[in-house]
Amino acid sequence: MYKKAFTILSICLILVSCGSKNKVSKIEDKAASKVIAAHYSNAPQFKTMSSRLKLRYTDEEKSQSVGVSFRMQKDSAIWISAQILGIPLAKALITKDRVSYYEKISKTYFDGDYALLSKWLGTPLDFEKLQNLLLGQTIYDLREESYKLTESTRGYELVPTKELEAVKKMFLLDAKSFKAIAQQLSQERENRNVTVTYPSYQKVENQSFPEDIKIIANDSGKGTQIEISFKSVTLNENLSFPFDIPSGYDEIEIE
Predict the structure, then answer these.
(1) For 192-201, what is each residue's pLDDT tens digit?
(2) What's the domain range around 126?
(3) What are phi and psi of 253, to 5 degrees?
(4) 94 in any annotated domain
(5) DSSP codes, the chain
(6) Does residue 251 lie within any of the structural domains?
(7) Nearest CA among 89, 111, 87 for reference residue 98
(8) How many domains does the chain have?
(9) pLDDT of 25-75, one tens digit each?
(10) Which residues contact 113 (CB under 8 A, 6 or more apart)?
(11) Model confidence over 178-213: pLDDT tens digits?
């Protein structure tokens, strides 16, 4: 389950990297500029975050749920520990320059930098984009490209003013909080797309954090889905990020 879940996030990052090559220096549309500025002014401000997560993975063959302990040090580290019925299954530590995890059932582990993973996946990976996805911020930095704004009953829809890239993008922001409601990235030629939606948000210390996130990925006609629910979110506590790969585990080889 954990490798497949990681694959969905990888598809997200593949789409991001393919679409981030041509950037302009300013946002041309004044209305879009105001909405984008509000999106970033309302971004969560904190040092640390912890939560209990319920994570459900579904593909064409099965559906499985696990409980996850989640900790984040903003702009620095993401730590997760997964369990079923109180039995530890896997643990991961993701930092700005390294990804490490191990699984107890298979007794395997991975411990490497982003260069190794990027070579394996064929695309650059980025800690900040994963953090943005989890915090209800747009995966792309909207300030680095020109966007066209459309207002509707759903909120503010932003699409690039020029569709010159391999990836088509759409971002939908809430009209009041300016948080992401939906993010869509697609490569039509490769028949690959990802939709990230945020069905609900919660207030924590007067700031908006996602309460539920749904990620749907389609790759060559095969669909998979991850649903994440955040419970008992706390901010700015003193947190530890313990991570030690047990002895006797087999390393996952990436060629």
Answers:
(1) 788 999 999 9
(2) 2-242
(3) -90, 130
(4) yes
(5) -HHHHHHHHHHHHHHHHHT-S---SS---HHHHHHHHHHHHTS---SEEEEEEEEEEE-SS-EEEEEEEEEEETTTEEEEEEEETTEEEEEEEEESSEEEEEETTTTEEEEEEHHHHHHHHTS---HHHHHHHHHT--SS-GGGS-EEEEEETTEEEEEES---SSSEEEEEE-TTT--EEEEEEEETTTTEEEEEEEEEEEEETTEEEEEEEEEEEEETTEEEEEEEEEEEEEES--------PPTTPEEPP--
(6) no
(7) 111
(8) 1
(9) 344 578 899 999 999 999 999 999 999 999 898 877 888 888 999 999 999
(10) 97, 98, 99
(11) 999 999 988 777 787 889 999 999 999 999 999 999
Q: Which of 10-24, 46-60, 218-232 has the lowest mean pLDDT?
A: 10-24
Q: What is the dihedral of CA 145, 150, 151, 156, to 10 degrees?
A: -30
Q: How confident is the model at residue 221 (pLDDT cuts 50, 70, 90)?
A: confident
In a domain, 250, yes or no: no
Residue 216 belongs to domain with CATH number: 2.50.20.10
Write the CA distances from 101 to 93, 115, 163, 187, 197, integer angstroms.
6, 16, 38, 29, 26
Cα–Cα distance, 64 to 57 (Å, whole number): 5
The answer as to whether 247 is a domain residue is: no
